Amino acid sequence: MKRSLLMVAVATCFSLGATTAFAQAASSPAMGSKDDAKALKKQADADYKAAKKACKSMTGDAEKQCEKDAKATHEKAEADAKAMKEKAEADKKAHK
Basic and acidic residues compositional bias: what residue ranges (predicted)? Predict the structure, then answer.
C-alpha cells in the first residue's frame, strides 16, 4: 500500500513538472514583452506553490526529491522570465 501510494505521489510530482516544463517551452523566453515576462514569473510562482503542496503528501527521500525537482523547475522558469524581460528591454532600446 505504501509503495503504491508513493508511486502515485511521485507520478503526480513528475506530471506537475512536465506540465510546467511544457508551459515554459510554449512561452519561449526569446520572444515576448515585459508584461509576458511578468506573467511567466507569476505562473512560475503559482506552479512552484502547487508542486510544493503536492510534495507534502510524500515522505522521506521522495518528498525531498520532489521538492528539489520543484525548486529546479521554478528556478529555470524564473531564469526564462528574466531572459525574456532583458530581451524585451534590449529590443525596446534598439528600436528607439
Answer: 61-96
Closest CA to 66 of 49, 80, 54: 54
By the 8 A CB rule, do 83 and 90 touch?
no
Indicate the number of domains in the chain.
Answer: 1
d(C-alpha 77, C-alpha 43), whole Å? 9
Domain residues for 20? 2-94
Residue pair 38/82 in contact by the 8 Å Cβ criterion: no
pLDDT in tens, 43-81: 999 999 999 999 999 999 999 999 999 999 999 999 999
Return the C-alpha cell found at 48.
512552484
Enter the pTM of the model: 0.65
